[in-house]
Design goal:
This protein is α/β, with parallel strands linked by helices and 178 residues long. The protein is 46% helix and 18% strand. The chain is built from seven helices and seven strands, in the order E-H-E-H-E-E-H-E-H-E-H-H-E-H. It has a seven-stranded parallel beta sheet with strand order 4-3-2-1-5-6-7, sandwiched between helices. Helix 2 links the parallel strand 2 and strand 3. Helix 1 runs parallel beside helix 7. The radius of gyration is 15 Å and the shape is globular. The N and C termini lie close together (8 Å). The model has no long low-confidence stretch (mean pLDDT 95).
């Protein structure tokens, strides 16, 4: 299965890198392919290293202005013209999506896939790994959107929240029949 992982390229504390590394190792050991932003820095590097070390494949999609930071030894690397093309390529190459901790770029990617799901433009399973409660506030906001009628479909049809890496991967595998 090709699993797109949206996450930070920042260097982060062990409380975030440890679960990301664990998720990556599970992906690789499961024979899955990582589809990611292609960066050789921060949490993106941690995940790519973990998947590769555990025997998984790496498919990166970088963007022109970040191409210098792209991983050199990925199995495949595509350089997109801009961020919109990058997101489209990442999603096109993926069977499922996992969202790990990240900043505004990760949030942008996450909300795009959820918007596509809301409108029935994709049925790919999406799981949000809520490491250290990082996305608790977002979960509350999404629940409010559902409760107050802003979501035309149940929140559970858009995204699942997982508290640990094994649960996150199990959700994706279950929803793809892997």
């Amino acid at each position: 299965m090709n699993i797109c992982v949206f996450l930070s390229a920042a260097d982060l504390d062990e409380r975030y890198t440890r679960p990301a590394r664990e998720f990556a190792e599970l992906l690789g050991k499961g024979g899955h392919t990582l589809v990611w932003g292609g960066s050789e820095s921060g949490l993106m590097k941690v995940v790519a290293d973990g998947v590769q070390a555990a025997g998984g494949r790496l498919v990166g999609v970088s963007v022109g202005f970040l191409a210098a930071k792209a991983r050199k030894n990925a199995d495949e690397m595509v350089i997109a013209a801009d961020l919109a093309e990058r997101k489209a390529l990442l999603l096109a190459k993926a069977d499922a999506v996992a969202i790990l901790v990240g900043g505004t770029g990760t949030l942008d990617e996450a909300t795009e896939i959820l918007e596509l799901k809301k409108h029935g433009k994709t049925g790919k399973p999406v799981v949000l790994l809520n490491t250290e409660g990082f996305y608790d506030g977002l979960r509350i906001q999404f629940q409010r959107m559902e409760d107050e009628g802003f979501l035309p479909v149940p929140l559970t049809d858009l995204v699942s929240f997982a508290e640990d890496p094994a649960t996150a991967l199990a959700y994706l595998e279950e929803h793809l029949g892997a």
